[in-house]
C-alpha cells in the first residue's frame, strides 16, 4: 500500500464498518432493554389487575352476603348465587373493557 490515496480509502472504509457495527450493537442493546422493560411493565400491570379483580370479587361476595369481612353469616336470607355470579362476570367484563381502552390509549 504505497499509494496514500488507496490507503486512505481502505482506512475510511474500515472506520465506517467499525462505526456501523458499534451502532448496530448499541441499537440492539437499547431495543433489547426496551423490550425487557415493556415485558416487565405488562407483567406488573397484569399482576396488579389480577389483584384488584380478586379483591373486588372478595368485597362483592362479602357485600352480597350482607356481612363484613370479619363476621360470620347468621340467618341471612337466601342469596341468588347465579344472579350474583352473572353480576360479577358483568363487572369483570366492564373492567376488562376499560383496561383495554386504557392500554390502547397509553400506546
Describe the protein's architecture and organization.
- With 107 residues, the chain is mainly α.
- The protein is built from two helices and no strands.
- The chain has helices spanning 4-65, 81-105.
- The longest helix is centred in the first third of the chain and has 62 residues, at 4-65.
- The two termini are 55 Å apart.
- Mean pLDDT is 85; it is low at 71-75.
- β-sheet strand percentage: under 5%
**Helix/strand order, N-terminal first:** HH
Termini gap:
55 Å
Percentage of helical residues?
over 70%
Overall SS class: mainly alpha
Could you give the count of β-strands? 0
Q: What integer value in Å does the Rg equal? A: 30 Å
| Biggest pleated-sheet summary | none
Mean pLDDT: 85
Global outline: rod-shaped
Number of continuous helical runs? 2
Low-confidence stretches: 71-75
Summarize the structure.
This protein has 107 residues and is mainly α.
List keywords for this structure.
107 residues, mainly alpha, rod-shaped
Can you lay out the helices and strands and say which pair or pack?
Blueprint (H helix, E strand, L loop, with lengths): L3 H62 L15 H25 L2
Helix pairs in contact: 1-2
Amino acid at each position: 500500500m504505497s499509494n496514500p490515496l488507496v490507503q486512505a480509502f481502505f482506512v475510511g472504509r474500515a472506520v465506517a464498518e467499525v462505526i456501523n457495527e458499534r451502532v448496530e450493537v448499541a441499537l440492539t442493546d437499547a431495543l433489547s432493554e426496551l423490550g425487557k422493560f415493556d415485558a416487565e411493565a405488562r407483567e406488573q400491570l397484569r399482576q396488579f389487575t389480577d389483584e384488584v379483580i380478586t379483591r373486588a370479587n372478595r368485597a362483592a361476595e362479602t357485600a352480597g352476603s350482607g356481612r363484613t369481612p370479619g363476621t360470620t353469616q347468621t340467618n341471612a336470607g337466601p342469596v341468588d348465587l347465579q344472579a350474583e355470579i352473572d353480576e360479577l362476570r358483568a363487572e369483570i367484563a366492564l373492567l376488562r373493557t376499560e383496561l383495554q381502552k386504557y392500554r390502547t390509549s397509553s400506546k
